[in-house]
Amino acid sequence: MQKQNKLNYLKSIISLLAVLLFNLPTLAALDINYKNLFVIPELFISSNGGVRSETSSTGESNSGTEPQTESDSVTEPQQDEFSNPAPTPGTSFGSTNSIPTSPPTTFPSRFPTDTSSYPTLIPPTLQPAIQPQPISQPRPTPQPQPAIQLQPTSQPTSSNTINHNNKILNSLLCKHTSTSSQDVNFTNNSFEITNITPSSAKVGDLNNDTYADLAILDPTKKFITVLYGSSNGSFTNNKTINTGFPHNKLYIDDLNFDGLQDIVLLSKDNAALSVLLNQNNNTFSEPTHFQTGTAPVSLTIGDFDNNNKQDCFVINSGDNNASLVLNPSNESPSEQLIASTNITLDENLSSVGVTSADFNEDGNLDIASAFSENKVIIFNGDGAGTFTQATTILVNAKPVSITTADVNNDKKLDLITSLTSANSNNVSVSLGRGTG
Asked: pTM score > 0.85 for this model?
């Protein structure tokens, strides 16, 4: 039994040491004097087995309390597993004879008030955190890049090139809206015009009101008659316009690109071309006359010198040649004939009609003329008013007139020639290929 008690006591001591070692970091942080940690206060055992605190000779306690009698200071010692004295031989460990009956009421201070003897704890110096420095990479020296070389197209075009064919194609567009699948029917609407014998008529918006008007020519009169159209398809407000002398051909076009339709006339007997510019408000300028060759029979209008102004190319049947009237809208009205440029076509052929387009698509307006010798000849223009014979097309009858249109809708202008013979009347179509 004694051996067992000693073993338990040893285990208790080991447990206490383990607790102290485990809490050493905490005790260090509390700045505790380790020398006085295990100091046991000096106690006096009374004659009756109690415990009392040490008093001075004057009767005052060390803690500064009032003097007490012996009977007042007797207290039972605090029950403590680790503070009990070892049992005497012949006495059981933990018996009532070995344990004080009452604990002390006061204890002397375990820690002295003078802290000069305490060891000074110097906290470690904290070093500032190392800031990561960015790694400086030298920037590469930029190398010059070679310039991009633009490859020219197979057919370089000038910024000044005029697309003549687009203008012609747009003028040929027929815009209409079909509201049903029924056939379109036309209603006969006849009206009488007195004092004239019409030989030619053209349609155009002559007063710029979006309604179609009629210009009617009498080759024996020195005027033309204009009938203005209305929203219901009827014509009212007849107007006569002075022409100076009789004419046998009538054309309508915008010569000066002001958005107003002008009138161009040919006079076979007077070998002249006359221009009446639209002044708006149902009025026209006085006629300006230009000299042509003998017996002009046909003309085509276009910008043959590429200056964005309309010119007139006239076929003269009496001389087997042509006349080029440049920029007729620039001239002021005059009764005198203004000279034009003579153009030689083929002296051995008699031209009966003419049309124009950029047949070889080089940006310059070309000429196609129909001859009574069953031929159509194309003359390529150079953009400066000069023409060179290029292509000859043979037809199987005598041409009467010629015009251009995009028959097969391939955005290339084709030639349409009306033919006449003793046996039949035919139409010849020559499809354009864009090469002239």
From this structure: no
